[in-house]
Amino acid sequence: MQPDISVQNLNKVYAGGFQALKDINLDIRRGEIFALLGPNGAGKTTLISIICGIVNLSSGKVFAAGHDIVKDYRAARSTIGLVPQELNTDSFETVWDTVTFSRGLFGKAANPAHIEKVLKDLSLWDKRNNRIMSLSGGMKRRVMIAKALSHEPEILFLDEPTAGVDVELRRDMWDMVRGLRDKGVTIILTTHYIEEAEEMADRIGVIREGEIILVEDKHVLMRKLGKKQLRLLLQQPLEKVPGELALEPVELSGDGFELVYTFDSQQEQAGVAKLLRTLGDLGIEYRDLQTRESSLEDIFVGLVHE
Predict the structure, then answer these.
(1) How far is CA 208 from CA 8, 44, 95, 303, 304, in A?
(2) Do 80 and 175 share a structural domain?
(3) Are the C-beta atoms of residues 242 and 284 closer than 8 Å to each other?
(4) Do 166 and 49 belong together in one domain?
(5) What digits encode the pLDDT tens for the residues 159-175?
(6) ∠ Cα 119 124 126 (to 5°)
(7) By the 8 A CB rule, do 251 and 260 touch?
(8) Which domain holds residue 236?
(9) Are 15 and 124 in the same domain?
(10) Which residues pair with 205 in a beta bridge?
(11) Distance between CA atoms of 37 and 22, rounded to whole angstroms?
């Protein structure tokens, strides 16, 4: 199946010589939620802006829904909806008018029923006659999403869409995003809430200093790079890790009451059994044990600081 977005050997060099993107190659599948993660300044927004036709590329090719974004700009752009980080709506317009106008910008015939559904899905229906200036920051964010959905795009970019949005509304938004994905809309997400990417994304891409350093299925990524920890709460404190455990990845807490054993989540857990047997042989008793698996945030932090 042809990817919905295909980025080939993409580079972006600004006039001052700064290279924001370096040989980016990326295919995003139709109907998936793809999370693009990276620290501030990594190139996430630049990449999105190029695909959406806001920033010019320096070299390479980009295709959206099969359309070359340079040679066939109008067709490519009409397939894309963008929710940018910045809140840039006309403060004096009503919610209804600004969302309806956005649909018209793409040459789409008026469809009040579709606009009504979008506003209801985003809990904006009761605010449809309010001017944008009267809305809260969270409400304005919802209006930005409604504008992006007004022309029924095949591809939706969400650049930090839940910044400044309360937890309940964030959950409502993600329910809507899942619904769009189920209808075949391709969704590209950037977020600083890593738990959102962990919950929502089908695949994860990590960008660092303008380069894609990893693209992987979320579950495969967490299985490959994840770690597990076994934490043992001891009955009596230890002064140091016993010599019999010196070669194991075991750490002792500062107060001596806790042993932490870290192991690869892909490996067999024979090491855990060996550790517990050794503690028994040494007469070291524990009153509780806990296990913890790496989150996507742990993996992300490790990758960008490698």
Answers:
(1) 18, 9, 37, 9, 7
(2) yes
(3) yes
(4) yes
(5) 877 766 677 777 777 88
(6) 115
(7) yes
(8) 226-304
(9) yes
(10) 36, 215
(11) 16
Residue 67: count other Cβ atoms within 10 Å of its Cβ: 18
| Cα 240 from Cα 252, distance rounded (Å) | 7
Closest to 103 measured CA to CA, from 90, 120, 91, 118: 118
Q: What angle do CA 16, 20, 25 make, to 5 degrees?
A: 140
Same domain, 232 and 210: no
Tokens, residue 33: 């939620």
pLDDT at 65 over 90: yes
Residue position matching structure tokens 């939620």: 33
Q: Name, in order, each residue with C-beta under 8 angstroms of 77's C-beta and a sequence gap of 6 or more.
A: 52, 53, 64, 69, 106
Beta-carbon-side half-sphere exposure of residue 202 (alpha carbons within 13 Å): 14
Residue in the structure block whose two tokens are 């309360």: 166
Please determine, for residue 249, whether its predicted confidence score (pLDDT) is greater than 80: no
Q: What is the mean pLDDT of residues 259-278?
A: 69
Residue 267 has pLDDT above 60, yes or no: no
